[in-house]
Give the backbone structure.
Amino acid sequence: MTDVATLWSYLATTPLIWLTTTILAYLVADGMARHLGNPPWVNPVLVSVLLIAPVLWLTRTTYATYFEGAQFIHFLLGPATVALALPLWDHRDTIRTSVAPIALALLAGSIVAAGSAILLARAFGLPMEVLLSLAPKSTTAPVALGISEAIGGIPALTAVLVILTGIIGAVTVTPLMNVLRITDWRARGFAVGVAAHGIGTARAFQVNPVAGAYAGIAMALNALLTSLIVPLLVRWLV
C-alpha cells in the first residue's frame, strides 16, 4: 500500500499523468456513446467530466495541478478556433445564397443567448462578476474567455459555464427539435451551433453531416458576433 501511495505521489507531480487521464477518459466516454448508438444523454464531454471529477476528488488534486497537466488540450482550442474558418469556406456558395436568413437567425440567436443570460442573472440578483462571466456562455471557449476577461468577468467561471451550456445544448437539442417538429437539418444545425458552440456542433455531426456543417458555420459566425454585441449588451442592460 505504501509503495502504491509513493508511486502515485510521483506520478501526480508529472504533468503527463493528467493529460493522459483526460485523453483516456474521453476515449472511454466516446466508446461508451458509440456502443449505445450515440444517444443524446450519453454525451462524451459530460461522461468525461463524470469520470475525471471523482479521480481528482479521491486523489485530492487541485484544479490548478490538473490544469497544469492538461493545458496542452486547452492550447489546442486556439488552433481549433482558427479552423472554424474551414466550414465557412467549404459552404461559401450556400452562405452567399442565404445571407439574409442566416444573418437574421444569427443576430436573433446571439442577442437572445447573451441578453437572456444577463437579464436572468439580474433578476436573480447574482453578483456583477457572475453576470459578466455568464454573458458570453454560448460562444466557443477561447472567444468566451477573452470576452469575459475584457468586460470584467471571471474567465475560470466562464469556462465552466461554457462547458455546461454546451453539454445541456448537446443533450437536449435532438429531443427538443423533434418535439418542435423541425426537420430541416440546416435549421437544426444552425440553431445548436449558435446556442451550444463546439460541444453542440460535435453532437450535430453525430446526428447528420448537413446539421454538423451548419452548426460549424453558426459557431464560427456566433463567435465573431458575440465578441461585438456582448460588451454593448452589458453596457445597455447592466
Summary: The mean pLDDT is 84. The first helix runs from residue 2 to 12. The chain has twelve helices and no strands.
